Amino acid sequence: MTGHRMSKFYITTAIDYVNSRPHLGTAYEKITADIIARYKRLAGVPTHFLMGNDEHSLNVFRRAKELGLDPKAYCDQMEREFREVWQRLDVSFDDFIRTTDARHHVGVTELVRRIQAAGDIYEGHYEGWYCNSCEAFKQEKDLVDGLCPVHRTKPDWIKEKNHFFRLSKYQRPLLDHYARHPEALEPEVRRNEILNVIQGGLDDISISRAGQAWGIPLPFDAQSVVYVWFDALINYISALGFGAGDDEAFRRWWPASLHVIGKDITRFHCVIWPAMLLSAGLELPARVFGHGFVTFEGEKMSKSLGTIVDPLDAASKFGPDPLRLYLVREFAYGQDGDFSWERFEERYNADLANNLGNLVSRLATMAEKYCGGRLPVPGAPAGRLAETAGAALSSYRAAMDAFALQDGMAAAYTLIDAANQFIAETEPWKLAKDDAHAARVAQILYEVAEALRIAAILLLPAMPASAAEILRRVGAPKPGAEHRLDDARWGAAGDLTTIKADAMWPRIGEAKKK
Ligand SMILES: [Zn+2]
Q1: How far is the CA of 73 from the centre of ligand 1 (A)?
Q2: pLDDT band with cut points at 50, 70 and 90 for residue 311
Q3: Distance (Å) from CA 19 to ligand 1 centroid
Q4: How far is CA 189 from CA 194, 195, 334, in A?
Q5: 0.85 exceeded by the pTM?
């Protein structure tokens, strides 16, 4: 990797169909991508985080018609709803693209033009299966008992004039690319699936739909629109101004450092997208991460199946942070997970109420009682908590750099656990009975506060508001958002002054349990 690539981080998520509101599955993707983006900013890396909505879907068009709305007006309304959900979940995207944006129209037109200029588009007829819910062409071998395996509905048999992209031409270049850059597709299980697909041979794909009005017309055939998936993938560069007169953002941020996507769309992102870019002579994204599905009671979150749990249920009740922490603490990133309210409650009580929240309260109470809240840097050398903090910081960095978000959070919690244990073992409330121990009591409490300050910095990406509140309560000299990983060095903040306030996470009562 060149220095140029290391000096910035461009992260994207999949853009969402707007025929229904965001659900836990989409929220999981946005929250985990947000944690990675916030971690990069914390690490001092210039970061650009893109999200958006995929509006050129026939399902969107149909949904708007059902509601008696103009499709664009419907998309405008859904954009407001999506943005409102992301705001409530504290998702810190820098840019939000809509595929009906003028800039997207420009980018799609230019990319299609380049691919055509490369001789990679030809006219033909498509005859075969098409699942309207997937908005995808299906091969016989993709179907299960003649049905779409995702939607369990019978796909339509369609026959129309289409323009085709010479995907077959890119089999060898794609295999070479993944041989040179195995890290370009993670986790490994997804990479192996995709390598099998590519090795099995690639068919050319249809990239247009005939006789439709909703979409971006092909620059060389105004009677056809660009197929929604081909259109959607291009958002990652059109958002940066690709194809526009001013493409400074494109030159600054492309290629993407990380595309965060669901595992079901790795084929689009790891076969078709890089082939499109190769054809157009553009650089390939450094990495695609295909996360698993978070299900609810064993059922995949799906707009079409209607098994929806509104992520706002937890976020509006407890604020976004307990949900955000739960989603990364509970599930290994890359694997599937099953959301349960029972586990959410257990984790809330264990991680937040009893552990971190209790530590914040006990420290503030003791610091006020024994030291008037003032905890100067002790003259005595730092004890074992300082060592634990150093180890936690290095495991945290290693884990977060590898997108092992669960391990990153676990590293932060080793420090919180150690601080709780340190209080239990040193028993400052006993030492405080004798004035001769005043210096020792002050040192113990300073060290606990310092451990808490450092743990809070490590938790900033997952729990931005709560971690900032903890930093305020331990007397960190600047607001949470201004912190960098360098601030997580032991003693970096100098003297601390604690602030006593209400419990941050009161226990969820037993009464709620059935
Ligand atoms: Zn389907």
Answers
A1: 26
A2: low
A3: 15
A4: 9, 10, 9
A5: yes
